[in-house]
Amino acid sequence: MSQMPQFSLTLLFALTLCMPSKTLMAQETVKQNLTTQAPGCYDANRFCISISPPTNGNYEVYAQRKVPLPLVLTLSASGLTSDLSPSGLAPRSTSSVFLNDDTPVLMGVIKSPRRFWHSMKVSWTSGVLNAVHNDDVTYLPPLRPAGNYPVVQGFGGGYSHTGASRYALDFAAPVGTPVFAARDGIVIDTKDDGQLGGASKRFAKHANFVAILHDDGTTSEYYHLKYKGVVVTREQKVKAGELIGYSGNTGFSSLPHLHFAVYKAKYEGRYMSVPFTLKNELE
């Protein structure tokens, strides 16, 4: 893989860069009528959690996706018993599944819907569980011409490109710079209503983005887009080089830039970036 250029952040002010938040690591605490078995649905009805009628005092808990896109889901609740969970009958158990079709999947068994809804938390990651990246693929630069937008933090950048986001690139770009799909795929998630940005993690939830699912199950992520700066929608097919949005400075960011990386999904709302190669514009 070609070596990605890196620049000293001290030469470009104190650039604050965020970890992706909504698509790659989302979590919600349910607000539910605690006395019913009505389903709770999440992320614009991406998936639902429901409880079956009781059998011998036991209720079965199911997860079902409602959008035909892959999803890795982890459910945590008090009193949840599941063979899928190593914690078994612990006071707070977890159960994880990969939803790759529309069939309801058993997450576990409970005794009390009230206790379940009161304590339940759910986290998810869009994409294919532990996808294997096709290393023969090269990616188009997401900003063009690439030479006009320097990489201000590259792979393994000590400022924020560590751990799960080790293989990420940050491009300095003025607000409103056109952003293009780096690889063919299907739009798996977007956000464009964030209006705030700043040098604090409390701003992370305001980051606007586009996430694109590839045919190998990985996702490319384009973060910090401007308010209302997304021009594609979930489930839309896109080609490499197609306009998908406009750069900005939303979320955990103190300087206008584009955060770009390729990820594979893992359990418990986690993710892992993978190495990738950008195509030379002269090729």
Q: What is the CATH homologous superfamily assignment of the largest domain?
A: Glucose Permease (Domain IIA)
Write down the Rg. Answer: 20 Å
> Can you tell me the CATH topology of the largest domain?
Glucose Permease (Domain IIA)
Average pLDDT score: 82
How many runs of DSSP E, i.e. beta strands? 22
Shape: elongated
Largest sheet: 10 strands, antiparallel
* H/I helix tally: 1
Low-pLDDT residue intervals, each spanning 5 or more residues = 1-36, 85-90
> What structural class results from the helix and strand content?
mainly beta
What's the structural domain tally? 2
- The CATH class label of the largest domain is Mainly Beta
Question: Topology of this structure?
Answer:
Elements: E1 26-29, E2 40-42, E3 47-51, E4 59-65, E5 71-78, E6 92-99, E7 105-110, H1 113-119, E8 121-126, E9 138-139, E10 151-153, E11 168-172, E12 178-180, E13 185-191, E14 197-198, E15 208-213, E16 219-230, E17 237-238, E18 243-247, E19 251-252, E20 257-265, E21 271-273, E22 277-278
Parallel strand pairs: 9-22, 14-19
Antiparallel strand pairs: 1-8, 2-3, 3-4, 4-7, 5-6, 5-8, 10-11, 11-20, 12-18, 13-15, 13-17, 15-16, 16-18, 16-20, 20-21
Explain briefly what this protein structure is.
This protein has two domains: about 90 residues, Immunoglobulin-like, CATH 2.60.40; about 140 residues, Glucose Permease (Domain IIA). It is built from one helix and 22 strands.
Main features:
283 residues; mainly beta; 10-stranded antiparallel beta sheet; 1 helix; 2% helix
